[in-house]
Specification:
Layout lengths: L14 H6 L8 H36 L3
Length: 67
């Protein structure tokens, strides 16, 4: 089984891609506010994970040299 490339984007069928096309019409003003807060929290979580992964990669590159 071939190894997946971690730098490649996920397929277009992932959860974030499905959110983009969702009809927002049925949501109330309050529900939209809750959705925004949830998405902002998810953005912060993903950003923190990305930054942690970048720091880990930089440490590995410093120790072993870049590939």
């Amino acid at each position: 089984m071939p190894m997946e490339e971690p730098d490649r984007p996920r397929p277009s069928g992932d959860a974030a891609s499905r959110l983009v096309g969702e009809d927002l019409g049925p949501y109330s003003h309050a529900e939209l506010g809750e959705r925004i807060a949830l998405l902002e929290a998810e953005i912060a979580r993903v950003t923190a994970h990305r930054d942690k992964a970048a720091a880990h990669r930089a440490a590995a590159d410093a120790l072993f040299g870049k590939r």
